[in-house]
Design goal:
Distance between the termini: 44 Å
Number of domains: 3
Order of helices and strands: EEEEEEEHEEEHHEE
Number of helices: 3
Helix content: 10-25%
CATH superfamily of the largest domain: Nucleoside Triphosphate Pyrophosphohydrolase
Bound molecules: zinc ion
Structural class: alpha+beta
Number of strands: 12
Shape: globular
CATH topology of the largest domain: Nucleoside Triphosphate Pyrophosphohydrolase
Length: 202
Amino acid sequence: MRYCPNCSQPLTTKFDGGRDRLACPDPSCGFIHFGNFSIGAAAVVMRENRALLIQRGQNPGRGSWQIPGGYVEHDEPILEAVEREVLEEANVVAKARDVIAFRHSIGGSIGGPSTNLYVVFRLDYIDGEPSYDNDEVIGAGFYSIDEMAQMEGVQGLSRWAIDKAMRAAGLKGLHPENGQTSMPARPGWQLFGLHHGDPDLI
Ligand SMILES: [Zn+2]
């Protein structure tokens, strides 16, 4: 980033919060570039001991298999994002139940360094046979651990997430708690918390 997105002036370096950051020189603007952040949401959907996988149709990783998922839009609740990705990529209707894992990664990409949070949800299968658009996705189906072992190009991160979901089948992860807490509901907020079995204590 070289120019202020608010007022288009060339950015300069400013010492802020203990480090140099790109900042707008105009004090009446005050823009500071804190970096490039993104959130991904991914879905482990199990049906009869088989996990839903999709095969990527585009690079990076064309031909590889992974759990459905994608970027969360900046104005989109993460629960809706993960259910949308499952529907868009595999034509499967599933309902998000809880968060079972996440990955934080710091990496480089087009546009400079970036930081990404990739949140893995467990979803309950509702309806639909896997199908795909033959463009972004060129394969989709439910596969057992044994079947995955015979497939080429199954993404390690997806295998890790599926393994986590299967081993933790009887446990409860971070649940959506909107409307169940003593805090007043706030627009745009979605709270997730550990389930402790006693609704009076929430
Ligand atoms: Zn500015």
